[in-house]
Design a protein that fits this description.
- With 101 residues, the protein is mainly beta.
- It has one domain.
- It is 6% helix and 58% strand.
- It contains 1 helix and 8 strands; from the N terminus they run E-E-H-E-E-E-E-E-E.
- The strands form 2 sheets. It has a 5-stranded mixed β-sheet with strand order 1-2-5-4-3.
- The longest helix has 6 residues.
- The chain starts with a strand and ends with a strand.
């Protein structure tokens, strides 16, 4: 589940990553500070997920890296991405609606 798409960082839920068995890269020697919606600041070990995002109507795929963050999955979001392994997928509130190619 896409949690937040800020101007500099994309965050995804750790639980969503685990549910979909996605491969991440952990940097145990690096951490980052995350400012939460309630203005609290949390420090977390850096864990990233390479992603490709398809923007509806543009048919362009944008490669990016998302930060994996352990937070309650209370937010809902819709995200479609294209993967060379899995084809095109639409993710809505954690539900994977695959469109295999």
């Amino acid at each position: 589940m896409l949690l937040d798409c800020g101007t500099t960082t994309i965050y995804v839920s750790e639980r969503w990553v685990e549910e979909h068995r996605l491969q991440t890269t952990k940097f145990s020697n690096k951490s980052m500070r995350v400012k939460l919606g309630d203005n609290q600041i949390a420090e977390v070990e850096l864990d990233v997920l390479p992603m490709e995002i398809l923007v509806s109507g543009l048919n362009d795929v944008y490669k990016c890296v998302a930060v994996v963050y352990a937070i309650l999955d209370e937010s809902t979001a819709s995200l479609e991405y294209r993967s060379s392994r899995t084809g095109s997928r639409r993710l809505t509130g954690g539900v994977d609606e695959s469109k295999e190619q």
